[in-house]
Predict the structure.
Amino acid sequence: MKKIYWTILSIVLWSCDPVVNDKPMGGIVSESDLDLKVYATTEGGNEIVMENNTVGVGSYWDYITGISTKQKAVATLPFMGEQTIKFTGFCEGGMVSTTRTVNITKIDHEVAAEWKFFAGEGIEGKAWTWNVEGYAGAVYGTAGWLTQFAPAWDVKPLDELEEKDCTLVFDLNGGPNLSKIDADGNVLEKGTFSFNMSITKKNPDDGSQWSIGQLKLNGVSVLSGHAFYDPSNTINTFEILELTDDVMVLCWNPADADAWTDATFWCFKKR
């Protein structure tokens, strides 16, 4: 009897097909099937709406000054001219990317005040130079990291100052541009800039705020744009200590440096 039971069980097991989930994954949505709308809320204006109405596709918008994962996002851009908005859609089968353009001919919606501080309001931008008068000539030098606000220790004498007669010109024509220009009007370096006023540092001695934001440059640096004690170390990320319509003070030190160690400071004024 046992022999018959095991024989029947073996037949049942070997005759059953394995259960296989062969349901195909969803395909990648093609670029032509994306239902996107990117437009200004006013004709030629700088407030831009980005809509993704594609069913089953998540959103990742890169609108130059920030990103959004919302299906409908609104951004206020500070730049004039044709702007490219990047979109990446995520669906069950993968992702698809594309771009849309808008042409901004007027700044009719308010933007962060720092854009005006850096680059002014005109198409010519804003020029910055050494703030010799404001800091009694101590415009490039060292002082205490996280604790001081201007060069106070080793200071470069004015007659030895690099790029003494050069200017930095920030403008927003088509994007966040920065040019280093010599006294004859020749462009020595040209790149872009960005800033983040939410990145701040505190004085560890008393907990008071030391920096007010961070400036990042790409393809260009500031006048004498290197560490004070190391001319080969070009600096592209700066802590902003002061930024108004007329004055800009920047500082750099390695991020893990201790307070009161030698940091490099730059002091500029609007030309």
